[in-house]
Amino acid sequence: MKTAERSDIGRVRTVNEDRALVLRRAEDMIVAVVADGMGGHQAGDVASKMAIEKIGEELSRLPLDASLEQRKEAVRLAVEAANQDVFQHASQREQLHGMGTTVVVAVATPDRLVIGHIGDSRAYLTGTDGIRQLTEDHSLVNELVRSGQISREEASHHPRRNVLLRALGTEAHSLVDVEDHEWTEDDILLMCSDGLSGLVEEAELFAVIRSGADLDGKVNELVDRALQAGGDDNVTVVLVENKREAMEEER
């Protein structure tokens, strides 16, 4: 499997509160994490950094021969451990009260993706036939769309589109969604903060990811598209390509 990542502060923010981690456990197991922190006085920066470090630490111990159910449970426990760390850290420091972060985690093996997430950072799966969002935003506007109160088009411009219903570290106990998905050779997993997904349409994401550029070129182009669209938030992108031929060549 091949990977590429990039994080950019954007054109408006003074601090990059996004963080990303890509951990190659073996030739056929990749752990990837994207976190988008929130909170004043750089608290979001602290929250996202703590979250990816804890999740990375926990999943670095995942056995390479773990079953699908063991991988799913490991992701759940890793996110819960990160939630506890961030919540306790904030509770003990007045200037950090209320800090938190979104998180999307993937454990990728050649046949399955295990995805865990809290908040509105997203995972998409792209194949030759299209792009599919694997995560569902834990946001106010998404609930309004689901209940039929507003359309998806209205959601993209809603004044409360950044309001989250769930985040890591804001409560003593987290509720993380964990699912698994099949993927095949040449599929590409996209993980990103809303600095990308909030500014670049799915059709454009798909066109860039399925272009002839190499993986680093695709990541750079995705970030550049978000910056060209205004860059009003931090932008973080991780791509994981299910490229078994490349894996064989590296041996």
Explained architecture:
This protein is of the alpha+beta class and 251 residues long. Helix content is 34%, strand content 28%. The chain contains 8 helices and 10 strands. It has a 5-stranded antiparallel beta sheet with strand order 1-10-9-6-7. A 5-stranded antiparallel beta sheet has the order 2-3-4-5-8, covered by helices on one side. Helix 1 runs antiparallel to helix 2. The protein is globular and about 50 Å long. The termini are close together. 43% of the residues are buried.
Please give the alpha-carbon distance between the first and last residues: 12 Å
Report the radius of gyration as a whole number of Å: 17 Å
Q: Report the major sheet.
A: 5 strands, antiparallel
Q: Helix content range of the residues, please? A: 25-40%
Mean pLDDT: 92
Total of DSSP H or I helical runs spanning 4+ residues: 8
Number of strands: 10
Uncertain runs are 246-251
Series of H and E elements: EEEHHEEEEHHEEHHHEH
Q: In which order are the strands of the major sheet placed?
A: 1-10-9-6-7
Structural class: alpha+beta
Tell me what portion of residues adopts beta-strand conformation: 25-35%
Shape: globular
